[in-house]
Every structure is written in C-alpha cells, then in structure tokens.
Design brief:
Layout: E1 2-3, E2 7-10, E3 13-16, E4 19-23, E5 29-33, E6 44-51, H1 59-70, E7 81-87, E8 91-95, H2 103-110, H3 123-134, E9 146-153, H4 163-172, E10 175-182, H5 184-188, H6 193-206, H7 211-214, E11 215-218, H8 228-236, E12 256-262, E13 267-271, H9 274-277, E14 280-284, E15 289-290
Parallel strand pairs: 6-7, 6-9, 9-10, 10-11
Antiparallel strand pairs: 1-4, 2-3, 4-5, 7-8, 12-13, 13-14, 14-15
Helix pairs in contact: 1-2, 1-8, 3-4
Length: about 300
C-alpha cells in the first residue's frame, strides 16, 4: 500500500515524497519504505546588506520590510540565523549571526535600526565586507549552514569597477545572493528609462543564477514590505533543496508510490513529482534503492518534452 502524499518538514517547508508499506492480511505494517525522503540539507545563515544612503526614504519602510521578513523566520543556533550590515560610503555591522537566539529579541532590536546615511553608495565594498566578515565563525557563522546574502539598494553603486572580482569571490565562497532594486529615488527624480535599466542591470549582476529566482524590484520603499513574504519563500526553499537553486527540486516533491508494480525481484514505483515535476521511477530491491539521475528520462534540449512531463 502506498501513500504518495506522505510529507515531512524541512525547516519551514513541507515536502511530499511518498511512502509505501508492506501490510499483512490483518492490516499490520510489516515494513515501510520512503525512497524520496532526503535529509534536510542544512540550516541558513542569512546576512542582509542594506543601502542606508540619504536617498533611501522613508527609512521606516526598510525596517518594516525587515520586521515582516523576520516574523516568519525561526531564529536559533540550530535553526536559521540572521545578520545585518548597512552601508553608504562605508560599512557597519549591526547584527552578528549568533547575536540573537530567538525572534522576539531580534525583532525588538531591528525596530530601532538606525539609517546609515551618506551621499555615496559603495555597494560592492559592502558586499565584500559582508562576505569576508559577516560570515566569520567569530560572528556566529556555521560551517554546515548555507550562506545567503540579501542586498537591498536604491541606486547605482559608486564602485561598480569592483563588481567582477567581488562577485567571483562570493561564488567561490558559495554565497547565494538575492538582489532587491528599490526604484523610489529614480521615480521621484524622474530618471530616464535608460538610467533605470542601467540600475536594474547592475542589481541583476549581483544576484545569483537563475536570475528570475534571485532578483526583485519594487517601485518605491513603501511597497517593499509586500515583497517580504515572496523573498522568504524563495530563501526558505533552500532549507531542503540539495543545491543553491530555490525552485529546483530533486526528490523532495517526488510523490513516490503514485503508481506501483511489484515483482519477486523488486518493487517499481512511479514518482511523478521528481526532478521539478518531470517524474521518474524508483526501483526498490531487498538490498538497495535505485533512482535514475535527473536527465535519465528528460532531455532539456527536447522542445516537446519540456518541464513537468510527469514521466
């Protein structure tokens, strides 16, 4: 008997991997298998890098955004940790990753977070400082945690010439980056479409691949709070995915046991949700579980196969 809708929690995410059981004639469970269940990959160390230059207005909107996000995070030494860095011409650390061990204390601190101020925007200095310092063990970074950086800014940087080297170092350190472009200043100053696009392109260059999962823009500071939930869903999906791809799943949503065929040699299970809903099959023998690789039945070059083929 199989229950393909069997689920489990990784952090704040529920994954549907399926379970099958060998049931006796008196309906006693003799044994069970759940071949799609994976260990939760790791906890998250999340560092916010906030542009606090004078053009950010009102600053309370940035604080409200942070509060909304943090209200949905489970903070703790064995859960997620959050650090906060702000910048203008220089950079300041406000919260170390291990500084707060519960949500209420962190939220109380963040509600009084001051604006950094400044007339220049040294975004790449801030990113590099966060990379080198915020993720240090001395500030609470954990070696087994995934590193996540959220960069929020409302304007082009004054140190874009550092972009290539800084982002390469972030890649080398396996830091997944989410970029948020706030267009309030550009709209208030009636900037041209070309200037707006140049700014957007810069923040896209900061963001990790795939860009559609890691880059966001909002029209002004006041609507930024509405982005908090969407950003949270993207980030917390990393708690169970095996790689740094917020919408790329392997067996987490496999629904193994959606179909089943039993023989003397093995049990063959259909797993329609595997590999981003392309689907696969799982063969369970007495001694092992055999699961094909992602591309065994799926050719990404096949224009007709496409995503969600449900093999």
């Amino acid at each position: 008997a199989c229950g393909p809708q069997y689920g489990y929690m990784c952090g704040q995410q529920q994954y549907i991997s399926g379970v099958c059981a060998n049931v006796s004639s008196s309906f006693q469970i003799l044994s069970s298998i759940a071949p799609g269940v994976q260990n939760c990959s790791s906890n998250l160390d999340i560092v916010f890098v906030l542009d606090g230059s004078n053009s950010i207005y009102p600053w309370s909107s940035i604080v409200n955004f942070l509060v909304r996000f943090l209200e949905r995070v489970k903070i703790g030494p064995t859960l997620s940790q959050v650090g906060i860095v702000s910048y203008g011409e220089d950079v300041a650390h406000h919260v170390n990753l291990s500084q707060f061990n519960n949500n209420s204390k962190l939220l109380n601190f963040v509600k009084g977070l001051p604006q950094h101020t400044g007339t220049k925007t040294h975004t790449f200095l801030a990113i590099d400082t966060a990379r080198r310092e915020a993720f240090m063990p001395e500030r609470g970074a954990r070696p087994d945690a995934k590193k996540v950086m959220v960069i929020l800014t409302d304007g082009e940087s004054h140190d874009f010439y550092k972009q290539k080297s800084v982002i390469e170092e972030c890649e080398n350190d396996d830091i997944e980056r989410f970029g948020i472009a706030v267009l309030g200043y550009y709209n208030r100053e009636n900037k041209s479409e070309g200037e707006v696009q140049k700014f957007i392109d810069e923040i896209k260059s900061i963001s990790s691949e795939p860009i559609q999962d890691h880059f966001f823009n909002v029209s002004d500071e006041l609507v930024l709070v509405n982005l908090a939930d969407t950003l949270g869903k993207k980030i917390f999906a990393l708690e169970a995915t095996s790689g740094n791809f917020t919408s790329s799943f392997e067996m987490e949503m496999s629904q193994a046991g959606f179909s089943a065929h039993a023989s003397k040699e093995a049990l063959l299970l259909g797993a329609v949700g595997a590999y981003d809903w392309n689907g696969t099959v799982v063969m369970q023998t007495a001694g092992s579980t055999i699961t094909p690789e992602r591309d065994e039945f799926y050719d990404p070059k096949d224009r007709y196969g496409g995503l969600a083929g449900y093999f």
